[in-house]
Design goal:
5% of the residues lie in helices and 42% in strands. It is built from two helices and 26 strands. The strands form six sheets. The chain has a five-stranded mixed β-sheet, with no helix packed on it. Strands 11, 12, 13, 14 and 15 form a five-stranded antiparallel β-sheet that branches. It has a four-stranded antiparallel β-sheet with strand order 2-26-25-24, with no helix packed on it. Strand 8 (140-148) and strand 9 (152-162) form a beta hairpin.
């Protein structure tokens, strides 16, 4: 999903709310920023170092002439019983409209992707779109954002992988109240499972959903993050025992801070396993307005994948990963996963590409990062909303050793 692509009534509402926030709340001072970047200065896109030996692959090309699909977004990845799974939202029309579907691939080596496997049956006047994976010892799940009409009544549906038939079977609605899942669920030390996302409608705040039952098909509790700002709150979380850091994207009209790049990452904290949260506030870390993805590596390093430099502004390029030192809570280094122009690779390359909506898992010594690429809209045809998020799906494989 993409902030500018909503139905016009919701767009107008978002604009008015942000305008009112700016006028009514005043500006944010540097002293009010929450510190998640360790130093005073944030490196520029020219200063950050490219990670060495990253392996790039195309998962799904943009090829409407052969398969009819235009919109693709929200790529997710998982490994279950030595098989790889990838999923994404797909639409032969424009995004966030009825008829949108979730498609997936199963692959043994992440080198060949042959047959699209639908996640659930198409809805008569609604959509099943992109979401997240979750696996336990015996089962593999897709938890997908879904809606009626044109982004109405947003909710989350669960689908279970059937190993004998290689199909996904529906297990019903598991979260409501506008919740759209955006990050793989995390099992916490208190036994509950938490996943980050946001709640569409009524200000579109960041939100988490919590399951306190071993049966994930039971209804999850949706907890919205308190905020005065009407942002497009797609979020990710870093879980450290009972302490959780939530990082959310801003919208285009959130307050600017003198001497800081705009937009910034917005953050909230929980000290009780996600049950209660501090009010959402801007951080001292620039981050383009796109869905972030965060977590903790096996090395103990926190990471944040987005487009984060001092001078990228709202450009969704380059694709970056900010990391901390092991055990530390503040990010202290930013690497470039890939730049807009990438020569000698099979993936799309253009100075104005948007590299967006990352999702990542660590497996067998590597970090597998999937993301969308709009090709700089080269070769895309249409006007207005027809051109929004007509993406290819790509993969970057990074050795954890390169991030130490």
């Amino acid at each position: 999903m993409y902030y500018c692509n909503l139905q016009w009534g919701l767009l107008l509402s978002l604009f008015i709310s942000n305008f009112n926030f700016l006028c009514g709340q005043g500006t944010v001072t540097e002293e009010e920023l929450i510190k998640i970047w360790k130093y005073q200065e944030v490196p520029s896109k020219e200063e950050i170092r490219q990670i060495k030996d990253v392996e790039f692959r195309t998962i799904k090309k943009y090829e409407p002439e052969s398969d009819g699909y235009r919109f693709l977004h929200g790529v997710a990845i998982a490994n279950f019983e030595n098989s790889w799974f990838v999923s994404f939202g797909h639409n032969k029309g424009v995004e966030n409209t009825a008829g949108e579907v979730a498609n997936s691939y199963q692959s043994k080596n992440l080198k060949s992707f042959d047959t699209l496997i639908p996640v659930g049956k198409p809805l008569e006047n609604g959509a099943i779109s992109h979401g997240v994976f979750y696996s336990d010892k015996n089962s593999m799940w897709s938890l997908m954002g879904s809606f009626d009409g044109e982004l109405n009544n947003v909710h989350t549906r669960a689908f279970k992988w059937n190993k004998s038939t290689n199909t996904w079977s529906s297990r019903g609605i598991i979260a409501e109240d506008g919740f759209w899942p955006l990050q793989e669920p995390v099992k916490m030390k208190n036994g509950n499972i938490i996943m980050a996302g946001f709640s569409v409608g009524n200000g579109n705040p960041p939100a988490v959903a919590i399951c306190n039952n071993s049966d994930i098909t039971k209804k999850w509790s949706v907890i919205k993050i308190p905020t005065d700002a009407n942002i497009w709150g797609e979020s990710s979380i870093i879980v450290d025992s009972s302490d959780i850091l939530l990082i959310a994207r801003s919208s285009f009209n959130t307050p600017k801070v003198e001497n800081y790049s705009h937009p910034l990452a917005w953050v909230s904290f929980s000290r009780d396993f996600g049950e209660t949260w501090t009010k959402l506030k801007p951080s001292n870390m620039p981050m383009a307005a796109t869905k972030p993805y965060a977590g903790i590596l096996s090395t103990g390093q926190r990471y944040l994948i987005s487009s984060t430099t001092s001078n990228s502004g709202n450009d969704r390029r380059p694709l970056t990963i900010a990391i901390s030192r092991p055990g530390e809570k503040e990010f202290s280094k930013i690497f470039k996963i890939r730049d807009a122009v990438l020569l000698g690779e099979e993936v799309e390359s253009h100075p104005k590409v948007k590299l967006a909506y990352p999702y990542a898992i660590e497996h067998d010594g590597s970090l597998y990062v999937v993301y969308s690429n709009d090709g700089g809209k080269q070769g895309r045809k249409g006007e207005g909303r027809q051109l929004l998020n007509n993406n290819s799906a790509e993969l970057a494989i990074i050795s954890i050793e390169k991030l130490k």
